[in-house]
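Protein Entry — a single chain follows
Next Lines — sequence and tokenised fold
***
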Amino acid sequence: MSIKQISLLITILLLASCGSTKQVVNTSEGATPKTEEQINTTEIEPDTEPTIEQTEEKEIVAEPVNPNSEEIITETIEIPEEPIENISHNSWNELLQKHVSVNGNVNYKGFKSDSVKFYAYIEHLQNNAPNNLWTRNDKLAYWINAYNAFTIDLILRNYPLQSIKDIKEPWDQRLWKIDSKWYTLNDIEHQILRKMDEPRIHFAIVCASVSCPKLKNTAFTAFDLETQLTVATKEFLSDTSKNELSVNNIKLSKIFKWFAKDFKTNGSMIDFLNQNSDIKISDKAKKSYLDYNWDLND
């Protein structure tokens, strides 16, 4: 080969070498070498914070609270709703507040002048008789209030008068219809209230007389019944015009004679008195009964 031919061959080889793609060798074992062109065209992820969309797509795992930390953990406490009574005695309470003194004196003329509201309450009782869904306290409060309201009604029907005993058979007049049944005061006291085994009802129901327990100037309610019965009993026993108590000698209201059986359901009558009096009476105390004043409690 001539020198001219050799020079031409070298020139061709040099030109071919310049147009070819150079390879970059990756020194990692088993790695496929990349060309410079591939390196130049590889996308580089920017070093930026994730966007809002990216953050929302990530699952957020709550970290456990460090028990040693000072972080205050609040707990929601559900406060139960107050129960609702089966029947409202609000209007009766308002009438009592208006027409009965703290000492139990009844302004019958005042009740007569408030007759629209008074008889609306009577009708309210008649249209809302207790049923088996009512609680025991709801029933007791209903019948105690009914007895007292009906007694005032009986007096108003015959007013003016000096005593409830001026009325012929006052406790046996069948004057009040509740649902489909007619009632007397004796029906309510003996067939309903006394059968509920609560002797303290005798200091809550009032027979419109001076020697009776005083008519409270607040209505009885299911929610406050236990307190109201306790207070009524203690007030009656501490009233020296109706009971005279001492350790060895007791002079009692005739209520304890007429309804003696009711006060012995959980022990003796002395036990009942001691549970509701500040005086501790001896089991051997001498017992007698005071005269009963049937004059009107006005």
Q: What stands out?
A: The chain has eleven helices and seven strands. The beta strands are 23-24, 34-35, 176-178, 181-183, 244-245, 249-252, 286-289. The first strand starts at residue 23 and ends at 24.
